[in-house]
Amino acid sequence: MSCEFSLKTFDELTSVDLYHILKARSQVFVVEQNCAYQDIDEVDFDCLHLVAYKNEKLIGYCRIIAPNSNKSKLKAAKSHNSAATVEGTTPSIGRVLILPEYRGDGLARQIMTQAIKYCRKKYGKKPIAISAQTYLIRFYESLGFTPYSEFYLEDGIEHVDMVLSLRKKVKAKNQRSSSTKILNFLLLVLALLFIAGLIYLMV
Questions:
Q1: SS3 for 202?
Q2: DSSP character string of 57-84
Q3: pLDDT at site 1
Q4: In angstroms, rounded to a whole number, what is the distance separating the alpha carbons of residues 71 and 110?
Q5: Mean pLDDT, residues 53-64 taken together
Q6: Strand partners, 40
Q7: Which residue in 50, 45, 44, 72 sits closest to 62, CA to CA?
Q8: Are 115 and 185 found together in one domain?
Q9: What is the average pLDDT score of the chain?
Q10: How far is 58 from 51, CA to CA, in rounded Å?
Q11: What is the DSSP string of the chain?
Q12: pTM confidence score
C-alpha cells in the first residue's frame, strides 16, 4: 500500500494531528483490545510521532522514544532486570498501530521500517527496543528483533521485550582471502601436473 509519512515532535503536532492520533490509539488499544488503561501519558511530550496517511487520513501510527527518556527511566526504576536496563539506554518504538480497515497490506512493516531507519539516523548504532504483544513476536522477528525478556502482563495483555541489534557484516576481505587460498592451491596442483606431464614426455 502506498501512503505518505509524517514525523513530528510533540510541539510540531497541530491540535488536529493530536486529535486524530489519540482517537486512533483509543480505538485500537482501548476499545478494540477491550483494555481500560491510561493511554495518554507524559511520555508523548518527549517522543517523535510517526504517522502514515492515505488521502490525508491517518491510517497508521507509532511513536519513537528517545534513549534515557522519562518512560525508559521509569521502567528501569520499577525493575531490576537486564531488559529494563537495555530499554532505558536505547531508543524504543511504541504504540504501533494500523487501523483495522488498512491491515494486511504490509503497512505495519512500512511504518516499522521508517521508524527503524529514523532511529539509526538519529541515534546511530544503538540497539532499538520494543515492548511487543506476544502474538506479534513472529512479525517483529521478521524485522530482526529478538526477545530478551520473559513474558509479562502489561495492562492485562501478555508482552515480551524485544531488541533489534546491528548485524555484524562478514568482511569481504576474509571472503577474498579464502577464495585466494583455494585458487592458489588449484594453480599449484595444475603446475605440478604440467611438470609431471613434461617429465613423462621427456622420458
A1: helix
A2: EEEEEEEEEPTT-HHHHHHHHH--SHHH
A3: 73
A4: 25
A5: 96
A6: none
A7: 50
A8: no
A9: 85
A10: 7
A11: ---EEEEEEGGG--HHHHHHHHHHHIIIIIIITT-------GGGGGEEEEEEEETTEEEEEEEEEPTT-HHHHHHHHH--SHHHHHHHTS-EEEEEEE-GGGTTSSHHHHHHHHHHHHHHHHHTT--EEEEEEGGGHHHHHHTT-EE-S--EEETTEEEEEEEEPPPPPPPHHHHHHHHHHHHHHHHHHHHHHHHHHHHHHH-
A12: 0.74
Decide if pLDDT at 162 tops 90.
yes
Q: What is the largest CA-CA distance in the chain?
A: 97
CB-based contact 43:69 (threshold 8 Å):
yes
Q: Which residue has the cell 488536529?
A: 16
Q: What is the pLDDT of residue 79?
A: 44
Q: What is the pLDDT of residues 74-100, one digit of tens each?
A: 454 344 344 444 556 889 999 999 999
Residue 39 sits in the same domain as residue 126: yes
Domain identity same for 33 and 84: yes
The verdict on 118 and 186 lying in the same domain is: no
Q: Given a cut of 80, is residue 202 above it in pLDDT? A: no
Length of the chain: 203
d(CA 59, CA 27): 12
Cell of 44: 508523548
Domains in the chain, number: 2
